[in-house]
Design a protein that fits this description.
Structural class: mainly beta
Distance between the termini: 40 Å
Number of strands: 10
Radius of gyration: 13 Å
Strand content: over 45%
Strand order of the largest sheet: 2-10-9-4-5-6
Largest sheet: 6 strands, mixed
Number of helices: 1
Shape: globular
Helix content: under 10%
Order of helices and strands: EEEEEEEEEHE
């Protein structure tokens, strides 16, 4: 059974930093690309970033480029999202997804999510 467990969210002021983690189990993690998606209050799901199976290729949505870094540790079956210079509009529930394609990531299985709240 595929399981994705996100953690690391919290409260932070604008300009602050957080690192999210996603612990994966139930599948061969190193064989799959992974994505982060998020959902802000009252809004739909938004694709944030993706990383290839080896970690060599990464992509980001324009609003987080230069501020967020996606990474993975295939020895620990864990996906990360390092977030710096956080903005109010980054407040959302963040989910990880076992998909490369953004549409599949938005519509497929995801974990319970971790809440990130940026407040001034």
């Amino acid at each position: 059974e595929v399981q994705l467990v996100e953690s690391g969210g919290g409260l932070v002021q604008p300009g602050g930093s957080l690192t999210l983690s996603c612990a994966a189990s139930g599948f061969i993690f190193r064989n799959y690309a992974m994505s982060w998606i998020r959902q802000a209050p009252g809004k739909g799901l938004e694709w944030v970033s993706r990383i290839s199976d080896t970690g060599a290729i990464t992509h980001y949505t324009d609003s987080v480029k230069g501020r967020f870094t996606i990474a993975r540790d295939n020895t620990k079956n864990t996906l990360y999202l390092q977030m710096k210079n956080l903005k109010l509009e980054d407040s959302a529930v963040y989910y990880c997804s076992k998909n490369w394609d953004p549409v599949a990531a938005l519509n497929g299985y995801r974990g319970q999510g971790t809440q990130v709240t940026v407040f001034s």
